[in-house]
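Suppose you are handed a protein chain with no further information: no name, no annotation, nothing but its sequence. What can you learn? This example shows the usual starting point.
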Amino acid sequence: MGTDRDWEKWGSRNPYYGVLSADKYQADNMSEQDMNDFFESGERHVNMIFDTIGRVFEPSRPIDRVLDFGCGVGRLVLPLASRSNHVTGMDVSPSMLDEARCNCEQRNVSNCELVLSDDHLSQAKGSFDLVHSSLVLQHIPARRGHQIIREMLGRVAPGGFAAIQCLYRCNAPAALRAMVKLRYVVPPINYVRNLYRKRPLFEPPMQLHLYDLSEIFHLLNTLGFRDVHTLLGSQDDGTYDSAFIFARREETP
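A reasonable first move is to predict its three-dimensional structure. Written in structure tokens, the prediction is:
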């Protein structure tokens, strides 16, 4: 669970940068305009989610209950709450959740429940019309993450939707990929990298992991998702290929 400890460190020291890793979101560098930009990016993302679902699937009923896995400081919880009756935001970092609660309170958002996450999503009560996760699974080792995806898909109500993003390919040279992986398991290598980048010495590496799309599609098929739509993209200037998978669960007979 090393990545869980890492994310609590991000949450307690540099939460907005932990969500979107741009220099302007560093804790000691963030202006009011930067804060506005941060949350406006969440509005654009949620608009994309609902526009895609509406265009591809033409849902026959409203999306009333939403689960956002890896909600961080609430960047997506806030616009999701404006489009639904209830949002459950889950995160592994208590500090991230505390910041999300403050953001909800400041904006008078009262239809949101923020709960601590675990691998079984045990605090997510009931089923949901939309289960969403973006820029989160990539930070969780895939063996563990595939089980979490199974749990997320199992929370989707019949006729409801999943919208899940992951990385599936790294286009960097093999030697660079090997060095990055060493940073995850050999702390002194990460310390040297932090010194070179003029970062705090003990700042944890922001791990990035790849997922097997065939395994995800197998889970979708097994759990009754027949309508699937995938948006392909990239991250880090093309270093990683990403997939955003939208799927609708079959109605029960």
